[in-house]
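User: Sequence for NmrA family transcriptional regulator below. Tokens please.
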Amino acid sequence: MSAFASASRRAEDEASIGAAIGREVRFERVAPERAREIYRAQGGFAAANADFLLGFEDYSGAPADPADHERTDLSANGPLPTARQVTGRPARTFARWARDHAADFLD
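Assistant: Structure tokens for NmrA family transcriptional regulator:
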């Protein structure tokens, strides 16, 4: 789910994941610094890439401000390709994706 999704979209996504795993879920917004602590505690890919994933560093590895990401206007790049154009097949709905990945939420 996008960090920038609307509140109504987040509620729909919560409901989709909850339905897929058979229990209620809730997303809680945390500061990027706290998210970095959580990622690092997880170890593995999340820990190794926390600074990049959360916007503390840019593609070149230079320091960056996570808040800049929220101010980025992607529309300046023009239209983005569709899922079908990228993968050769239609996009799944979020609910379908949640069902396909239900086990990932239960680990």
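The chain is about 55% helix and 0% strand.
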